[in-house]
Structure formats: C-alpha cells, structure tokens
Design brief:
By secondary structure, the chain is an alpha/beta fold. The protein has nine helices and ten strands. The termini are far apart. The longest helix has 23 residues. Helix 1 packs parallel to helix 4. It folds into two domains: about 160 residues, 3-Layer(aba) Sandwich (Rossmann fold); about 100 residues, Alpha-Beta Plaits. It is globular. The strands form three sheets. A six-stranded parallel β-sheet has the order 2-1-3-4-5-6, with helices on both faces. It has a two-stranded antiparallel ribbon with strand order 7-10. Flavin mononucleotide binds next to helix 1 and strand 4.
Length: about 280
C-alpha cells in the first residue's frame, strides 16, 4: 500500500476521532483541512487520500469542497471519503463525488458513519444511543480500512430521507426543530447569530477552537466574522457555556466526542495573544 494521508474537518470531534481510527489502521498522517484552504494549490505526496467530515444541512462543509478544488494532481490519487452524520447521510457522499469529478478526480469509496448528533435538539439523544453508535463504528472501521487497503472501487453510501425519520431520538428532537422553524419564520435566520451572555470571561477558547479561524476577541468579547460554516465548535467547547444562538433555547446539549479533548482541537495561539 502507498503513502496515505487523512484530511479532516471537525467541530465537536466526531470526525477527528474517526479520522484517527482510520489513520491508525492505515498508518497514515492526520491533517486538518481548514488551515490549508488559504493556499492557492495543495500538494500532497500521498497516493491514498482520505477525507473525514461532518454533514451540515445534507452536504459536506463547503471548506471541504474548497480543499478539493485546490488539490494538485487529483486524478493520480486514490480518494475515499467518510462522512459522520447525526440523522442521515442522505446524498452527501454523492455530492462529494460530484465535486471531485468536477476537478478531474474520482471518489473510490464513500462511507457513512452514524455519530452523536450535535445540532438542534441533540440534548434529547441518550448516552446509550451514543455508546451504540461508537460500537457500530468500531466494527465498521475495520471493514472501511480493508476496502481502502485493498484498493477497491465503487461503494458510495447514501440514504433516503425516510432513513432519517427512523432514527431513535428524532421524534424527541421534533419540538426543538419546530421551535427553530417557527422562530426562523417570524424573526428570520439572522436572529440565530452566535452571541455571548454575562458568563463570557473573554478567555479566548472560541477564538482558538474555531476550525475556520473565524472568531477574534475584541475588547474581551468574541467577534464572529463571515467564514462561519456552522460547526458550532465555539458553542460546544465554551468552558463557561456562555455562547448561544441568539439566546434562543434550541436544546443543543454541549457535546464533544469522548476520545477528543480540547487541546486536540485548539489552534496554536498567535504569538503575543496568549491569555491566562
Ligand atoms: C449546523 C449543523 C447541521 C447539521 N446537519 C446535519 C444533516 O443535514 N444531517 C445529519 O445527519 N447530521 C447533521 N448534523 C450533525 C453532524 O453532521 C454530526 O453530529 C457530526 O458527526 C458532527 O461531526 P463533528 O463532531 O466532527 O463536527 C448537523 C450538525 C450541525 C451543527
């Protein structure tokens, strides 16, 4: 097997944990995608490249698409993708394959991995359900790595919308989703802008945890810019639970993958900006 690299994007660690599991089995390096998209072209010396990312609104995060459009010699690589999803993978891996084909490459394998949901209403999903998802992935990870190391082609997983409706917990999430829809209808989606409350200490965790480098502390408070992809990393990792979506209670319980700790997610502090 040739040299392998695993690129990931992750807000709450599900995709990072999956990326690490795969990298361990394939003897590959694990690399975050977001810092690389600032470059005009991305050169990789690997023959096998894997991508691991969450699904946001039925699609891969757009930063992953930006990465693909910058990857040099894409037609010479064996590419595979793994999406981590909370409700249903839907057509997101087919969308990913289309993006890759549009720049001359081809997705040889696309795998969907159910992980704890980290969006609206996720507070209704139980720890037992989380444990079942982790156990399912442990078994599936072996299968995925055998497929990749065997250089196989042609498997791209997807699901119908009905699959999502069968997910345990979805019914219990429904009131929060309804609250979101009604609020969005009457007040507009802009009313869900990220804001802090009086518990914010200006500690700077949000600045360093945002995978898109989209938060700056200005006058001891976070200021969000326009590169947000809705990872909710700032919300979930805030040590004071001081961040909300417009102050609306959408039952988003603070979550991160149990094998991922905050230092795995933090970007290095810029020299001269360290905070106590
Ligand atoms: C803004 C947002 C949108 C999401 N949209 C979807 C979706 O359309 N379908 C789905 O199954 N899960 C969706 N999710 C759940 C995440 O894809 C899932 O929890 C993922 O494993 C999170 O990965 P991470 O911990 O690496 O960020 C969404 C989560 C967020 C925060």
């Amino acid at each position: 097997m040739g040299k392998a690299e695993i690129y990931y994007f992750s807000g709450t660690g599900n995709s990072l944990a999956v990326a690490r599991d795969v990298a361990r089995q394939l003897n590959a390096e694990v690399i975050p995608v977001a810092p690389l998209v600032e470059r005009e072209s991305i050169d990789s010396g690997a023959d096998i490249i894997g991508f691991v990312f969450p699904i946001y609104d039925f699609k891969p995060p757009r930063v992953v698409d930006s990465f693909i459009s910058r990857l040099a010699n894409i037609d010479t690589k064996y590419l595979f993708g793994i999406c981590t999803y909370g409700i249903a993978p839907s057509q997101s891996l087919k969308h990913f394959d289309k993006t890759i084909r549009s720049v001359g490459g081809r997705l040889s394998g696309g795998f969907a991995v159910g992980m704890p949901f980290n969006g609206i209403g996720c507070g209704m999903v139980t720890k037992d359900q989380h444990a079942r998802l982790f156990a399912n992935w442990r078994a599936k990870s072996v299968e995925v790595c055998e497929y990749v190391s065997g250089g196989r082609q042609g498997r791209i997983e997807s699901s119908s919308l009905l699959y999502g409706l069968r997910q345990p917990g979805l019914i219990r999430m429904a009131p929060s989703i309804m609250r979101f829809l009604v609020h969005a209808l009457f007040k507009g989606v802009h009313s869900f802008a990220l804001v802090t409350d009086e518990h914010c200490t200006g500690c700077g965790t949000c600045e360093r945890i945002c995978p898109m480098n989209n938060v700056k502390i200005v006058g001891h408070k976070p200021k969000w810019s326009n590169r947000c992809v809705s990872s909710l990393a700032c919300y979930h990792w805030c040590p004071n639970n001081a961040i909300s979506l417009g102050g609306v209670d959408l039952n988003i319980a603070r979550y991160h993958h149990p094998d991922v700790i905050i230092s795995d997610m933090l970007r290095p502090a810029m020299p001269g900006t360290e905070r106590p």
